[in-house]
Design goal:
FAD/NAD(P)-binding domain; flavoprotein; protoporphyrinogen ix oxidase, domain 3; oxidoreductase; globular; alpha/beta; 33% helix; 20 helices; 615 residues; 18% strand; binds the ligand C=Cc1c2[nH]c(c1C)Cc1[nH]c(c(CCC(=O)O)c1C)Cc1[nH]c(c(C)c1CCC(=O)O)Cc1[nH]c(c(C)c1C=C)C2; five-stranded parallel sheet; seven-stranded mixed sheet
Amino acid sequence: MLRHGHQLNRSICRQYRRSGTQAVWPCAVQFRRQSTEVKPTHDVAILGGGITGLASAYYLARELPNSRITVYEASDRIGGWLSSKRVPVKDGTILFEAGPRTLRPASNGVLSARMMQELDLAKDAIFPQKTSPAAQNRYVYYPDHLVRMPHPAFGFAENAWSLLTEPVFSGTPWAAAQEIFREARDQGVQDESVGDFFSRRLSRNTVDRILSAVLHGIYAGDAWQLSAKSLFSGPWRDEATAGSIFAGMLKSRADGPELTRREADFLQVMKSYNWDPLLRATLKDTTAFTFKDGLQMLVDKLARHLVEKGNVEFRTSTPVTSIVASENRNNVTVNAEDATQSGTYTHVISALSPGHLNQVARKLEDTATTILVPSIPTVTVMTVNLYFRTPDLHPPGFGYLIPQATPFENNPERALGVVFDTAYSPSPKDLDLNNWQVNDVDQLKQAREQGQLINVNDFAWYNMPHQPNKQDDVPERGTKLTVMLGGHWWNGWPSFPDEKEGLALARSVLQRHLNISEEPEAWQVNIQKDCIPQYTVGHESRLKSAHNNIWREYKGRLRVAGNWMAGVGVNDCLRSAWDVVQSLRSGMDGTGLEHVGTTDFVRLKPVRPGQQSDK
Ligand SMILES: C=Cc1c2[nH]c(c1C)Cc1[nH]c(c(CCC(=O)O)c1C)Cc1[nH]c(c(C)c1CCC(=O)O)Cc1[nH]c(c(C)c1C=C)C2
């Protein structure tokens, strides 16, 4: 982080000082409010205070309430890549996100939705509607202009015209029509790159012009390095079992979608959860949500909740130097740089990156690094947040992605994409009663009390009767954008652009692509070093080796979680924390990687036309 301090973490610290709680949180000192001294069933050290570490502590404290939990964090703040900052502008304040900015409620996202309900955060959330431009309008920049991606809401004629005339789609509709007739891969192929897989099944243009853009937006990675088996496990399996991706899709429609048994069980557990009916309805109407003070609110609320629990201790500014299993594998000693913070635990959950875990993992009396996890490459992403006084400097939408095929002269900065952040916050105009589609507040309140969903223009008004939430506190909304740079384009670079260069690169992208030449009123440059692990070809077999190595050395006393195993997003981090805690709770042996490569599949009931799938 190159600008602005860690105000939000410090503000919790101040709040706890003010609230008269017995110790100061977290500010480099430990904090534990022990209610009654009961011998803990599990004494667990969690390594890493990012979202995975916090979520692990949260699930442990809930599922194993008699456990004792110690979270070790090397830096002086918690939250990892999640970092929201409120910054001043001429007439108010606006919110910048350095890392992830929204959460999707689908799939593993049910965990973030559930956490939001349990932490009473839904009243602070912002829910753009499915039908809003933010949800529907997604663009790709190719070769020298923005192209809106087809969406059912745009109608047949517009979508067909775009597919037939835009160079970005050149050859793709024809390749898709032929996919079912293409020969399936040799059964001996263990894995291949996403690029190789989809250029075999569809076309090279489809990969370079469309898929590579999608992969930029999720992994900031190279389509020709990332693993098809790990990233597109469904189509990868469909080719092997049904002969083609299209045939696999037809089979799913007829017989029902195929899931691993573990996934089906997870969905069942989530379905039977006692959802707030209004939140459930709101989530069905939205594709992504955020909070009025950004995703940092989730971190702060989680931390506060854990401190109040009493059985969680945070040790910030406490780098761990090694973790050593006892000879009989009954416990693990965590050694910290400050020896007074070292301790012996029944279990350790590592929420560290693989490289960091390898550095601290030691065999008994061994001083050399132990390779527990085979090397998993990472990429560095620079995010540049900018705020301009003039509103609507871009077309309405979520943002745009830049594929690998965009000619160098149209993207010499090697940008990956641009996010239109204003789309996630209602403007003061949206909140003005006179601009509402319905403006009889009493009628709206009555409807809300009956559990009906009320929308204020493009947003669900969940926190009624309070004013709908907004992120930017300004009387007239400007334009807020984030330019994403780097990723795989910067692989092997000995150093990265500094703050000044980053800002210049971002402004140059905006000038060329959106014709924005205005001076930004506020900006922030963030370099997220090694933030996204790359699931490159052979990823699954590396995870299997990691499982074997960790089991051999720690026999279930060390479990791993994080964004390097089953998805790089915040929701996936929550899921890996959830899985580790569930297996600890049920007394199962494991490492956190025991499910990798499972072949136990079940079919769900097919969804008939007109029928709604269960969310
Ligand atoms: C900070 C950079 C990140 C990039 N990808 C991710 C991060 C954190 C991880 C990620 N982004 C998305 C997903 C899909 C599933 C999901 O959980 O939503 C994942 C795993 C989608 C996405 N991509 C962008 C945004 C704003 C979102 C929504 C989720 C979020 O807020 O992160 C834009 C975007 N992300 C990256 C780039 C290069 C990019 C470009 C416009 C990298």
